Amino acid sequence: MKKRVVVTGMGVISPIGNTVEEFWQSLKAKRVGIGEITHYDASEDKVKLAAEVKDFNPKNYMDPKAARRMELFSQYAVAAAYEAIGNAGLDLEKEDRTRIGVSVGCGIGSLQIMEQALEKRYTKGFKKMPPLFVPMMITNMAAGNVAISFGLEGTCVNVVTACATGTHSIGEAFRAIQWGDADVMIAGGTEAAICPTGIGGFHALTAVSTSQDPAHASMPFDKNRSGFVMGEGAGVVVLESLEHAKARGAQILAEVGGFGSTCDAYHITSPKEDGSGAARAMLLAAQEAGLTGKDIQYVNAHGTGTHHNDLFETRAIKKAFGEDAYQMNVNSTKSMTGHMLGAAGAVEFIACVKTVMEDFIHATAGFEEAEEEMDLNYTKEAVSRKVTAAITNSLGFGGHNGSLLVKKYAE
Question: One of 216, 302, 362, 400 is an active-site residue; which one?
Answer without folding.
Answer: 302
